[in-house]
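Let us work through a complete example step by step.
Step 1: write down the sequence.
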Amino acid sequence: MRYSPKHIKSKQIWVEIIKPEKAMSACKPRSSKAPLSLWHCCLGHISEETIQNMAKEGVITGMEVEGPGSGNCSTCLKGKQTWSNIPHVTEEQSTKVLSRVFSDLCGPMETLTTEGHHYFITFTNDYSHYTHIGFCKHKDDTLTMFKIFKACAEKETGKSLKILCTDGGGEYSSNAFNSFLAKNGIKQETTNPYTPQENGVSKC
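Step 2: predict the structure and record it as tokens.
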């Protein structure tokens, strides 16, 4: 098949040949200069000694480190902190009944009891691990349940309650609750925030 000359269009393409040395110079990466503390954050908080060795040995092209490192990265310090083990029993277990009692309130529950209780409260004796359980409709019933437990326990054992250990919740720190404890000479011990395992046998 032949084409007529009028249907053929000529095109010209100009090609510039670059010498290899010029091409390499055009692609030469730019160097980055930054303080050692900034490199430490950008590289995922690896050790400053490792970063200095990388720059010295040329592992990363174009990497320049300025100045010495601080060696006091708050993020690294927080990440390396460890949590001390908390025993499930008190270091000095009580040797007498009602010397120390652990208490905890649980709820509200999704399913109510037939009497309409949302919560339950426990009182555990540190000496015998005997646990008394009471049911509450509201958190405000905590003081009433404690009064009932205290009266029954002291009547049955002939001993006086000395220390009450709780998680420091609002139901145990109200003015009415603190006044009742002070009136009856009961000392209250509270655990640290967000450490429920410190609340002795109540969380075991």
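Step 3: interpret the result. The CA atoms of residues 28 and 79 lie 38 Å apart.
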